[in-house]
Amino acid sequence: MLLMLLLLELMVLNISMIMFLVFSMMKLDFYMIYYLVFGVCEGVLGLGLLVMIVRYYGSDLYYMFNISKF
């Protein structure tokens, strides 16, 4: 679960760099603020979910093993 969250944050970072380059050429930098706000909210929700799973099960490894059964 933690690895998936890290990869998702890395994807958000890569997309934000590409968007920064494209939007800075078109003078549309204010759209970057919206994207970064949504990226931060996504990160906060993911970490909150991870904390909830760790508090409930004691480890996020149980959650990963439970998913692999499907």
Task: Please summarize what this structure is.
With 70 residues, the chain is mostly helical. Helix content is 84%, strand content 0%.
Question: How would you sum up this structure, described in words?
Answer:
This protein has 70 residues and is mainly α. The protein has one domain (1-68). The chain is 84% helix and 0% strand. The chain has three helices and no strands. It has helices spanning 2-25, 30-57, 61-67. The mean pLDDT is 81. The chain crosses the membrane at residues 6-26, 33-57. Keywords: Membrane, Mitochondrion, Transmembrane, Transmembrane helix. This is NADH dehydrogenase subunit 4L.
Summarize the topology.
Layout: H1 2-25, H2 30-57, H3 61-67
Largest beta-sheet characterization: none
Helix content: over 70%
Overall tally of structural domains? 1
Q: How far apart are the termini?
A: 16 Å
Secondary-structure class: mainly alpha
Radius of gyration: 16 Å
Flag low-confidence runs. none
How many DSSP helices? 3
**Strand residues, percent:** under 5%
Global outline: elongated
The arrangement of helices and strands along the chain is HHH
Strands, count: 0
Task: Determine the oligomeric state from the structure.
Answer: single chain
Question: What are the key terms here?
Answer:
mainly alpha, 3 helices, 84% helix
